[in-house]
């Protein structure tokens, strides 16, 4: 009784099991035809993202605004560069977050723009934790 592919493509919520994602790893899933990166961040990545001064960010947002309370190790972002719509590469760039090879935009491990022409952070899609190991996107 799962929805068919056309319903999912039109925007039906999807559920993602986080269990197989190791710490320091990320996966890419698709929701509404868009790539969604789900990153299982290390404690060090979370700490660095949380201590970044807002004055250093072109589009100021705290890490806490981009994650869910109690689940700070999980980052969920739309994997489309906010400059011209290219797909950034995870675990790349000088902040070990995301790097867009098309025009050089660099995002940190919280998906916040740090360098390059992108005007804003990678968007956070609507999502919720159904359990500690399962999320629903959409």
Describe it for me?
By secondary structure, this protein is α+β, with helices and mostly antiparallel strands. The protein has a single domain, classed as 3-layer Sandwich (Rieske Iron-sulfur Protein), CATH 2.102.10.10. It is built from three helices and ten strands; from the N terminus they run αβββααβββββββ. It has helices at 5-9, 43-51, 63-66, and strands at 14-17, 26-31, 34-40, 74-78, 89-92, 97-99, 106-107, 113-115, 127-131, 134-137. The strands form three sheets. A four-stranded antiparallel beta sheet has the order 5-6-7-8, with no helix packed on it. The protein is globular.
**What does the main sheet amount to?**
4 strands, antiparallel
Order of helices and strands: HEEEHHEEEEEEE
Give me the side-by-side strand order of the main sheet.
Answer: 5-6-7-8
Rounded to the nearest angstrom, the radius of gyration is 15 Å
CATH fold node name: Rieske Iron-sulfur Protein
- Uncertain segments are none
How would you state the average pLDDT, rounded? 94
Give a short overview.
This protein has 138 residues and is an alpha+beta fold.
Tags for this entry?
four-stranded antiparallel β-sheet; alpha+beta; globular; Rieske Iron-sulfur Protein; 10 strands; three-stranded antiparallel β-sheet; 138 residues; 13% helix
């Amino acid at each position: 009784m799962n929805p068919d592919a056309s319903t999912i493509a039109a925007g039906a919520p999807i559920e993602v099991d986080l269990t197989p994602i190791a710490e320091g790893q990320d996966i890419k899933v698709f929701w509404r035809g868009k790539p969604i990166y789900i990153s299982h961040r290390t404690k060090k990545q979370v700490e660095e993202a949380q201590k970044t001064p807002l004055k250093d960010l072109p589009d100021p947002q705290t890490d806490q605004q981009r994650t869910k309370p109690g689940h700070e190790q999980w980052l969920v972002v739309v994997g489309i560069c906010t400059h011209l719509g290219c797909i950034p590469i995870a675990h790349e760039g000088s902040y070990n977050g995301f790097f867009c090879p098309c025009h050089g935009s660099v995002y940190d491990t919280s998906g916040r723009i740090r360098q390059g022409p992108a005007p804003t952070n990678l968007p956070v899609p609507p999502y919720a934790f159904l359990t500690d190991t399962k999320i629903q996107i959409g």
